[in-house]
Each structure stands twice: as C-alpha cells, then as structure tokens.
Fold:
Amino acid sequence: MTIVVLVAIWIVIGLLMALSAGSIWKGERPYGEFADYAVAIVLTVLTGFADWYLVPAWLGIEGVLLFVIALLEPTAAAILGLWVMRLIKARAG
Structure:
C-alpha cells in the first residue's frame, strides 16, 4: 500500500512542479504545457522509484529519512528537467 500512496504523491508533486514552472521561468513554455506536465511527472515518478528502491540498497537508509529523500529528490529532478528543457530550447533557437 505504501508504494501506491508514494506514486500518487509523486504524480501530485510532478503536477505541482509543472504548474509552477510558469511562475519560476517567465515567458512561454518552450515545448508547450503538455510537455512540461509529462516531463515533470515522468521524472518525478522515475526518480521516486529509484530513490525508494536503490537508496536502501546502496546507502542503507531506511525509515523516515528514506521517505523524506523519496519526496525531495523527485521534486528537484522535476525542476532540473524543466530547466533543461528550457535550456535546450534557448540554445537551439
């Protein structure tokens, strides 16, 4: 049951990061609103799964600290992914 709740939280985090991208970076969304949402959600969920399963195996971190890591790092990954999208678009065009 925990992983289902975490996936739901990661999806909400991805949605919130994509929604706030317009406030963080002024101007037009380089690949459209749908791309922002898709990239943020995919990166959040993938990073969350990696954190949830790999951090305990590699670092031995468990419990509340693992839960905090599994929430904060996906948020950072979504922001980084959205920034990279804007960087690529700015350099290409």
